[in-house]
Amino acid sequence: MATKFRINQLRALSSTVFHGIGDSSYLHLIRAPQNMYHIRHFSDASSPPLSPASYSSAPPQNAELLTAPRPEKINRNASTTSSVNQIELAKFSAISDTWWDSEGPFKPLHALNPSRVSFIRSTLCRHFRRDPCSVRPFEGLKIVDVGCGGGILSEPLARLGATVTGIDIVDKNIKIARVHADLDPVTSTIEYCCTTAENLVEQQKEFDAVIASEVIEHVADPAAFCQSLAALTVPNGATVVSTINRSMRAFATAIVAAEYILHWLPRGTHQWSSLLTPEELVLILQRASISVEEMAGFVYNPLTGQWSLSDDTSVNYIAFGTKISQQTD
Ligand SMILES: C[S@@+](CC[C@H](N)C(=O)[O-])C[C@H]1O[C@@H](n2cnc3c(N)ncnc32)[C@H](O)[C@@H]1O
Ligand SMILES: [Mg+2]
């Protein structure tokens, strides 16, 4: 049974790629214009959308994750810090005064920013029916930037008109984000808070769009983290997650080259075992009631030193999903 039909019409226009992911779910990734994939979920393996031969014969790379039991629902009244990984936080705390040094340890995030803002702008404009040519297309939208760090992404979102809340568990990051945002009256409207997504869930906060960029690979429990992101998203709202693929190419480039050869990032920034493949991310978001509808990769051009959007999700990628409305009896 297909759980998503909205993008049916794209099938006629685009080449299709199928991935078998586990015993009971399939993803149908449809190559679409603008270097993006559109995604359909099939939850019944007994009636796949095309012949089984269309599916990848390779087994899922992380079968144990794909077959893991569904995470418990977040208890809004319980105090939980399921996303906090103290070792990861110590890494960010150690380099927190370099957030706005575009040649420092966060250089890759500065370089990535135009491409991820472009993806977020186009997907949110489509979803919320905003004019992408408008100067402030996000006017009136409440957005939370979860794991905002120094505010590299929060600031352009505020400039696009959104009412932005930036949260991060490292207090030093929030202080630096605050000081930097206050340099410009437009970004000084950002509300920064040292907290976690699960704490905001406890406070019953909700946002039109929830963004967690380059954070999920640093949290203790990605599935519980996605549950929190979903709980923070209003029904029919948007959730955007970007991260690094657990592929051999990502190991060679994002870890070996970036950390050990080019020294873009401190050694040990990323743990191979903490990375998620796009299929795994789509599944855990789906289990959290977020239906991923669009995905894009980021590719780095060593000649220009710039990143751009691509259909190559083998290293860095970003996913846009919508919160499935719960049916009430
Ligand atoms: C690689 S940085 C990304 C910063 C920002 N999203 C960006 O892309 O520019 C990851 C950030 O997530 C924060 N973080 C990690 N785990 C967190 C958690 N459980 N709750 C909130 N923030 C967290 C870290 O402190 C760090 O600032
Ligand atoms: Mg990272």
UniProtKB/TrEMBL annotation:
What cofactors does this protein use?
Mg(2+)
The reply on keyword Nucleus is no
Which transformation does this protein catalyse, written as a reaction?
A: a 3-demethylubiquinone + S-adenosyl-L-methionine = a ubiquinone + S-adenosyl-L-homocysteine; a 3-demethylubiquinol + S-adenosyl-L-methionine = a ubiquinol + S-adenosyl-L-homocysteine + H(+); a 3,4-dihydroxy-5-(all-trans-polyprenyl)benzoate + S-adenosyl-L-methionine = a 4-hydroxy-3-methoxy-5-(all-trans-polyprenyl)benzoate + S-adenosyl-L-homocysteine + H(+)
Q: Which Pfam families match?
A: Methyltransf_23
- UniProt-annotated binding residues for S-adenosyl-L-methionine: R116, G147, D168, S213
Q: Where is the protein localized? A: Mitochondrion inner membrane
Per the record, the pathway is: Cofactor biosynthesis; ubiquinone biosynthesis
Residues reported in the UniProt entry to bind Mg(2+):
E214, E217, H218
Q: Which domain of life is it from?
A: Eukaryota
Answer whether the UniProt record assigns the keyword Transferase to this protein: yes
EC number(s) per UniProt?
2.1.1.64, 2.1.1.-, 2.1.1.114
Q: Where are the transmembrane segments?
A: none
Gene3D superfamilies the record matches? Vaccinia Virus protein VP39
Kindly state which keywords UniProt assigns to this record, in alphabetical order: Magnesium, Membrane, Metal-binding, Methyltransferase, Mitochondrion, Mitochondrion inner membrane, S-adenosyl-L-methionine, Transferase, Ubiquinone biosynthesis
Membrane topology per record:
Peripheral membrane protein
InterPro entries on file? SAM-dependent_MTases_sf, UbiG_MeTrfase
Q: Which NCBIfam families match?
A: UbiG
Sum up the protein's function in the record's words. Answer: O-methyltransferase required for two non-consecutive steps during ubiquinone biosynthesis. Catalyzes the 2 O-methylation of 3,4-dihydroxy-5-(all-trans-polyprenyl)benzoic acid into 4-hydroxy-3-methoxy-5-(all-trans-polyprenyl)benzoic acid. Also catalyzes the last step of ubiquinone biosynthesis by mediating methylation of 3-demethylubiquinone into ubiquinone. Also able to mediate the methylation of 3-demethylubiquinol into ubiquinol.
* Subunit structure comment from the entry: Component of a multi-subunit COQ enzyme complex.
Concerning its family, UniProt says:
Belongs to the class I-like SAM-binding methyltransferase superfamily. UbiG/COQ3 family.
HAMAP family in the cross-refs: UbiG (MF_00472)
The protein depicted here goes by the name: Ubiquinone biosynthesis O-methyltransferase, mitochondrial
Organism of provenance: Citrullus colocynthis
